[in-house]
Design goal:
about 750 residues; mainly beta; six-stranded mixed sheet; about 0% helix
């Protein structure tokens, strides 16, 4: 008998085409199956946490996309973009407007001068008859009443008094077919949104329930002076024209010019007096005079007047000329970023290879001067052998332009120089191309979906080649991508450094990625439904992972916003290992209610650390076997970890030889309820069903499973968790006999 020690699962799930590649280093730490387990960077495998139910999407009949919005470390939001609407979620709950006192009778609520409208959703508290902690939708209103319906379609018999708070909702112009093509970037509390069928817009937040979405006005923020006049001090007949601009006191942005002309003397001693009305926000004014058809700088004034005493204009310093490159259909950009204090747009239908950079530190200003100045706006068209649509812009040490046919850097000739119209350069870095799925930035590396959608690559700067290079991160798990593409993904840095990716068929993939440690391990996740979107946002000490899941409940399609629970475990009573779940915590109860979103579903229950089987939600509630104080209720899911066939390099190979695994020692962390063996023949950890008041604790350490004997040429072992309990597998030690 031989003992084989597998100390790491850092290879993740490997493609079947690699199951014979015992020569690969990844084979020794790889898996056949990693389903609803994720791989930690140190190599251990953990069952994924459950999904807490947050809310049903406003419109469950159409796709929904989640996008994060972070203003500060404590003001973080997940935005629910649906068909022509936007909703806001914060700290695992929808953002609600203020409470209004209501009285209820059947399906009618009475609230004085409520201001609600048909289609609004209300969150009820304290209302009897199934109206406590429940969301309902308004179907009819009068000035002081609202008729509501249950989101699950059930009949309402509301009574008593309570409160109702409207779910905050903002109307948008983006249809459900367009939301996954939105390209966004954020600066402070302003998010810029681009879509090829819409003019660029800004989403501004001034409070939890104060959001505005407006078209961007591409003009300088500083307005020009008004009321210009020019008076000759000496008379004459030659025509002179002047331009005067205002310079902002805060950021030195120069306004568009205001013009004035007059006839003045041609003698060497002539003078002209120019006056204007002060422009709000201006600190100084620049004065330009025309010569040979070109305006040149003649002076600066801190007052509202200037005397031109036959000053020779500097034709190398002209006034800015405002412009808006994004007017009209076909001219709307699809990519946006910030780079070197400029806002950058790219990739309109009319000019797919063109990149526009704003005036330095003036993000709505695309003015240019004649001749050009260093802080002027910049327009650049990427030169390539074929038309390459710019799909994404990513600022690193250089600005990375990911196009439909290649990857390019945009920046100054030297990284130590500021970017100017005269030194901007583009350099090709590769010709693989990127899909429309927005890229991710992890540290100083870009991850993107290749143009055809079936390959995931990273791209980072390599000092030895002085270029951006990368790897195919999907090659070892190509079975997860063949014939598929990713529609959405997000990076959760803390605590496990995992990229969560939604596949077009509703599967959720995970990639544990830590480039500096050469760690990349794929795992896959499923639920009773289909994943459609994912977003991450810092919340407390972790990155919260939110998903949209399309589920079928009582024969009706529902789209739910859900959030992964924390995986930080202290006691078995706190373990949250159910999907679309809710938690009751309080005085001991025998009935748990408020489960309307799971009506008719068979659910998994953990009550005070004990598994309760055979529960189905009826009228929004379940009944427990005995009163409990902490109850987690939700949909069950199965976690599978299947090893590759065991190899013994010390004897050459044992592939193809008869063998049997007679035992398996699992080095576990915070685990209970695990089963080990082969499909159809699994051995469970010991269970004492008589322990109710004092449930079995989670176990950490080595646990040996004796496995049924049986000879075969295969030697993989299946580790499974079906209970609403956690499992952490740090290492395994198979005991194997070889014929």
């Amino acid at each position: 008998m031989a003992l084989i020690y597998q100390a790491s699962f850092g290879g993740g799930e490997l493609a079947p085409s690699l199951w014979s590649r015992v020569d690969l280093a990844k084979y020794a730490e790889g898996l056949k199956t990693c389903r609803n387990f994720f791989i930690a960077a140190h190599g251990g495998a953990y069952s994924r946490p459950g999904l807490r139910f947050i809310a049903e999407a406003r419109n469950s009949t159409r796709p929904v996309r989640l996008i994060p919005f972070q203003f500060s470390t404590v003001q973080t939001y997940v935005l629910e973009w649906g068909h022509l609407y936007l909703r806001v979620h914060k700290d695992g709950a929808p953002v609600l407007e203020g409470d209004k006192a209501v009285t209820a009778s059947g399906a009618e609520l009475t609230a004085a001068a409520h201001g609600w409208a048909v289609g609004d959703d209300l969150f009820l508290e304290g209302v009897s008859g199934g109206g406590n902690s429940r969301t309902v939708r308004i179907t009819a209103v009068t000035a002081n009443t609202a008729t509501v319906s249950a989101l699950d379609g059930g009949a309402l018999a509301l009574t008593g008094s309570g409160t109702a708070a409207r779910v905050y909702t903002l109307t948008t112009p983006y249809s459900a077919d367009q939301i996954f093509r939105l390209n966004v970037v954020q600066s402070a509390d302003v998010m810029t949104l681009c879509h090829p069928d819409h003019p660029p817009r800004e989403l501004r937040r001034t409070g939890h329930t104060a959001w505005t979405l407006t078209d961007i006005t591409f003009v300088p923020r500083q307005v020009p002076p008004t009321g210009l006049s020019a008076t000759p001090i000496n008379s004459g007949s030659e025509q002179y024209s002047y331009a005067v601009t205002a310079v902002n006191a805060d950021d030195a942005e120069e306004s568009p010019p205001a013009y004035v002309g007059l006839s003045s003397a041609a003698s060497a001693a002539w003078k002209n007096q120019i006056n204007w009305v002060a422009a709000p926000g201006a600190d100084t004014y620049n004065i330009y005079r025309q010569k040979a058809g070109t305006y040149g700088f003649v002076g600066r004034s801190k007052t509202t007047g200037f005397v031109d005493d036959n000053i020779a204009p500097d034709l190398g310093d002209g006034p800015p000329n405002p412009r808006n490159p994004f007017v009209g259909a076909g001219n709307y950009p699809q990519a946006v970023a910030y780079y070197q204090q400029r806002r950058v747009f790219a990739g309109s239908a009319a000019k797919p290879q063109t990149v526009w950079l704003s005036v330095s530190s003036a993000y709505n200003n695309f003015s240019v001067s004649t001749p050009t100045k260093d802080d002027d706006a910049i327009t650049l068209t990427i030169a390539a052998q074929r038309v390459n649509e710019v799909r994404h812009l990513v600022p690193l040490t250089s600005l990375i332009a990911l196009t439909s046919g290649g990857e390019f850097t945009i920046g100054p000739g030297s990284q130590s120089d500021p970017l100017t119209p005269s030194n901007i350069q583009t350099r090709p870095q590769g010709y693989r191309g990127a899909a429309h799925t927005p890229p991710l930035v992890v540290g100083n590396t870009v991850l993107y979906v290749q143009a055809q959608g079936g390959i995931i690559r990273d791209l980072g700067y390599d000092y030895t080649s002085d270029s951006f290079t990368g790897n195919d991160l999907s090659v070892l798990a190509n079975h997860l991508f063949s014939g598929h593409t990713l529609t959405d993904w997000a990076y959760a840095q803390t605590p496990y450094s995992i990229i969560w990716a939604v596949r077009e068929d509703g599967t959720l993939l995970g990639l544990t990625y830590m480039k500096e440690q050469k760690v990349w391990a794929w795992h896959r996740h499923d639920t009773d439904g289909l994943f459609e979107s994912v977003a991450t946002i810092p919340e407390g000490n972790e990155d919260g992972v939110y998903v949209v899941v399309r589920r079928t409940v009582n024969g009706v399609t529902r789209r739910y916003i859900e959030r992964f629970a924390t995986r930080v475990i202290t006691t078995v009573q706190d373990c949250f290992c159910v999907d679309s779940g809710l938690t009751y915590s309080g005085p001991a109860v025998s009935t748990v209610s408020g489960l309307w979103h799971l009506e008719g579903k068979a659910v998994s229950v953990l009550a005070d650390g004990n598994v309760v089987a055979g529960q189905t939600v009826t009228n929004g509630r379940i009944t427990l076997l005995q009163p409990s104080t902490t109850v987690h209720v939700g949909l069950p899911y199965t976690c599978d970890l299947q090893t590759l066939d065991i190899e013994m390099a010390s004897v050459g190979t044992i592939q193809g030889r008869d063998k049997r695994v007679v035992g398996l020692t699992v080095r576990m962390e915070n685990t209970r309820g695990l089963a080990v063996g082969k499909e159809g023949s699994l051995t469970e950890m010991r269970v004492d069903p008589s322990v109710i008041a004092n449930p079995l604790p989670l176990e950490t350490g080595d646990y040996r499973f004796a496995l049924p004997p049986g000879w075969s040429t295969g030697s993989s072992v299946l580790i499974r968790q079906t209970y609403p309990l956690p499992a952490g597998v740090m290492a395994i030690v198979p005991e194997i006999d070889v014929a």
